[in-house]
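User: Batch of two.

Assistant: Item 1 of 2:
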Amino acid sequence: MLKSLNPERRTQAMLLVLMLVMFTSIADFMILMPLAPDLMHEMHIDTARFGLLVSAYSLAAGVASLLAASLADRFDRRQALLFCYAGLVLATLACSLATGFYSLLLARCLAGVFGGVIGSIIFAIVGDLIPPERRGWAMSWVMLGFSLSAVAGVPLGLFIAAHSNWRMPFVALSVMCTLIWVGVFYLLPAVKGHLSEGPSAQGMLAGYKELFADRNHWWACGVTALLTLSGFCVIPYIASTMVSNSGLSTHDLVYMYLLGGVATLFSRPVIGGLIDRHSPRRILAYLVLASFIPLILVTQTFSLSVAWQLLFSTLFFIFVSGRFIPATAMVTGATAPQMRGRLMAFNSATQNFASGFAALLAGLIMTQAADGRILNFDWVGYLSCVFGLAAIWMARRVKAVS
């Protein structure tokens, strides 16, 4: 099907289908967060246990990514993506069948095992197929999946849940993933170039040894870990604090994700263009510093109108999520092609472990008052800014390789 298209159209078709995979995998991870008020009420769980639900996905994804780090460069990346995406379909369906807290926790772990490595496979594919001078543009295009998950995935999930129950969004998402899986099968070509780039270490331990021997890999993954700690101290609890502290209704949450997602549809291509014209390190520093404004604003309790609260959350979407575009471009370029799959898998592991730890840490810092308000969220915001400053410092040590 792709052979009848010119090279530019082929590239656009591949990036489109990869963006749709990213969209559904991120929606699968995000959909639990806006359902927090209903889940916490129905299952009688506090912020710490809800943090465990969020962390279960991330920690399971981290373990799976660590295993994938020694195997990622030994297979056709297309086949690896098809296998993991099929597993995510089954795990998402299992979430809809959960009968209680522990069965949902188990289903989220299963989703994390498969879904957690999908992003690393996609970024490795982009790194293999797209030259460095266009990589910022390609990354911003693929990462529009994050925006679409906020524009369409999360609001649609909330709408479906409001008119049925919390299970139906998972059913709808599993059906959508199935259709996109077919698209991947027909539109994505084999990605085997890395298999002939040069010798690679054999065996799991040898693969890890080769990967970890390069200090540049540690710096690159450290940037991702610090940015994830910064973001995921706050992200899982925005919906619940907006409802309990700021007076937003669950209906208003739809507009929060919708407006934020629409804004990033425009901001992400702009960020991608800036990365291709300037240093990703410089763009990252500017975005991190700019992100401190919405990070502080959304973690405070203000007696302001819904319009102001939506403005704060929209700025949060633009700058906090936008930081990962230059960071990901830096990571993909921090290694040779024959080790890119392993590095992206290990980077995914560090990201997932960091997000799981951040959600647990923030859940422990915060407490819930008798009237339902969530306390100490402002301290979580300050901690988030500290992690962001550390990410700027570490990014200065990452060297571009390919």
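Item 2 of 2:
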Amino acid sequence: MRAPAAGLQPMEMSFLGNTLDRQSTKRGDKAYIDGLLQRPDTQFVLSTDKTLVFRGDDIQSIGHSLSEAVALGAETKEMVFLGLRPENGQAVFATTVPHTDDDLSERPGLQSIDLRNLALKNLLSPEDLGALAQARALIHWHRTHRFCSSCGEKSVMAEAGYRRDCPTCGAPHFPRTDPCVIMLITDGDRALLGRPARLPEGIYTTLAGFMEPGESIEQAVRRETLEESGIVVGDVQLISNQPWPFPANLMLGCIGTATTFEIEIEDDELEACKWCSREEVRQMVAGTHPEEHKIPPSISIAYELIIGWLDGVI
């Protein structure tokens, strides 16, 4: 793998602006965490199993008070410490509430919004959007890992939400982040773009996939590209990375050079895959493509890879 290339502006991507001081060395200090919980200015990010909960039309305030959180059914023993705001030392926690989105729609003064829509609509500062990405990933892990994978007993939160312990067998469990490779494969003047069926109609994007145990980034890029398109990849270059809280991934953005060019879709992940010239990609970006094909929105690393290649900076 060559050294990372310059040219991308990573702060333009969503979920990279988190500036919270995570105070990781103090998470095990119960008195310290309990003191932060009780401070009157402490904010609590609230979430259902799918969406984030806000006060009325006040999207700019991502947190609630402790009393508001408890009134909605949040439990103090299940509150995850996100960190302190560097500008004023305000503590921010996150937790889940036992309500569906339909339940909340009937409560005056509240609204629930999906994190992806918040990013697409550019409704929050990069700092708050990054904090919400941290919150959603941790909340999802706690909701889906309540029982010990060793003995099956119910686990309890520890280390301010960055561990769950089994009170029966003593096994510790830690939040997971799943690395994914996301790659723009080129032959110099053409880019390989595919269309997963899950995407909105007309959108073509970079190929992507989860890394497997024992793989390097280069190996994962080559394997996933071959599986999805039949294209063999030679040189691979790591360009950038991005937290992707859907539910808890780290996207490793790469550029790869194709050594074969005949596309063979044998995998069921793509419904279409094609080589696109720079002119065709420019049409996708400008919205003038004759078949109304488009690239993904700017919140994703896929967009940055495509635009970076199109502009000649990667």
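Residues 12 and 209 are 23 Å apart (CA to CA).
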